[in-house]
Amino acid sequence: MVDGMEKKLNPGEVLFHEGDRGDVMYLIREGKIKITKGSGEDEKVLAVLKEGDFFGEMAIIDGSPRSAGAIGATPVSLLVIDKETFQAKIKENPLIHYVLETLSRRLRATDEQIRLLTIKSQERRVVAYIITKAKETGKKTDQGIAISPFSMENLAHLTGIEQSKIQIYTQNLEKAGLVKMLENTLVIKGVEDLDDYLRYIALKEKFEKI
Fold first, then answer.
1. What local confidence, expressed as pLDDT, does residue 117 receive?
2. For position 4, what pLDDT does the model report?
3. Consecutive 10-residue averages of pLDDT for the chain (210 residues)
């Protein structure tokens, strides 16, 4: 058994939010934890974990942000396992280390594709993808945040949208001065502006229906 610290939560207390950076994983000793997506009225409960379940392992395998939030559903007692302890154990067997990293990448890719496909608007789906990639893998440059490689063909596969439509949506973003295409790289002037644009599209679609 891996050693670790103990942490307690009250019902409704947030352990971490979706998008937070994480360097520990958790084992539930007692109580229940809700795994959630979104917040407020848009919050969706993906799972309720109980005694003996573990979670948060993907963040310490590949260093990516938390893919979902975790909230106490009841009084909870957790065993906290830090990144160094966890990786020291799995690195004792290089094959297990490789398999876990590969599974983590596949799970994250699947989670992202499912999230995108639940967005009904095709334009919002494309913009949401760009925002996510900018936050997760974007690199800061003098011109903005660069996503490279950026492939419209790959984006069409992930979002289920025709490549010609994706090209139109990215051209609209370029005309608005929000992004710039450079061969196989997409440069984003500012993530905050893209967030605003995403909200603008949602409001526009909402009021066009009235």
1. 60
2. 65
3. 78 92 91 87 84 86 82 95 81 76 70 67 88 86 91 84 92 92 89 88 74
- Give backbone dihedrals phi and psi of 110, rounded to 5 degrees, phi first: -65, -45
Cα-based torsion angle of the residue sequence 16, 19, 25, 28 in order, rounded to the nearest 10 degrees? 40
Domain positions in the chain are 5-111, 121-208
Per the CB < 8 A criterion, the answer to whether 72 and 15 are in contact is: yes
- The CATH classification number of 121-208 equals 1.10.10.10
CATH of domain 5-111: 2.60.120.10
Give the C-alpha separation, 114 to 110, whole Å.
6
Phi, psi of 168 (to 5 degrees): -65, -45
**How far, in Å, CA of 138 to CA of 190, rounded?**
11
Nearest to 2 by CA among 94, 66, 88: 88
Which pLDDT score is estimated for 49? 93
- How deeply is 62 buried, as exposed, middle or buried, from its count of CB atoms within 10 A (0-12, 13-18, 19+)? middle
Peptide bond into 149 cis (omega under 30): yes
Identify the pLDDT of residue 90. 75
